[in-house]
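=== RUN LOG ===
request id: a7f3
mode: sequence -> structure
chains: 1
length: 95
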Amino acid sequence: MMMKPTCVFLCSVTVLLLLVGAPMAVESATCNVSQLSPCAGTFSSGSKPSSQCCAVVRSQSSCFCQYLRDPNLAPYISRGRQVAASCGVPIPNCK
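=== RESULT ===
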């Protein structure tokens, strides 16, 4: 009889840990530079970013450090910083 409360407690803790950890796993899985496609015109022409572009830049801000470390994206970093600044999105200090 004493095993049942212990089992319920352990199951509850496990579910809680899964729920707390789930947003972190989902958040890291959403870092995909192709999601910045609404900003393609801004990157190529240097025009002012649209509100849709800025919304996407804001939603991808947690991915900036990952993007900055990607050597394939190096040619776009300077312009990317300008777009983020135009949208009012700060660039984090990446380690």
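=== NOTES ===
The CA atoms of residues 39 and 50 lie 8 Å apart.
The chain has five helices and no strands.
=== END ===
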